[in-house]
Design goal:
This protein is mainly α and 44 residues long. It has 3 helices and no strands.
């Protein structure tokens, strides 16, 4: 899974914010990338 794939899935509404947050906790994307995808700051 890559940032681009996660963003595409979020934009298509296949992923929600909680799913994107899990990708941050697993180290797949950064908190900054979470913010770029969702438009909201990542809250730990």
């Amino acid at each position: 899974m890559t940032y681009e794939m996660i963003k595409k899935n979020y934009d298509k509404k296949l992923w929600n914010k909680q799913m994107v947050a899990v990708a941050v906790t697993k180290g797949v994307i950064t908190a900054d990338q979470y913010e770029a995808i969702t438009g909201e700051a990542y809250a730990e």
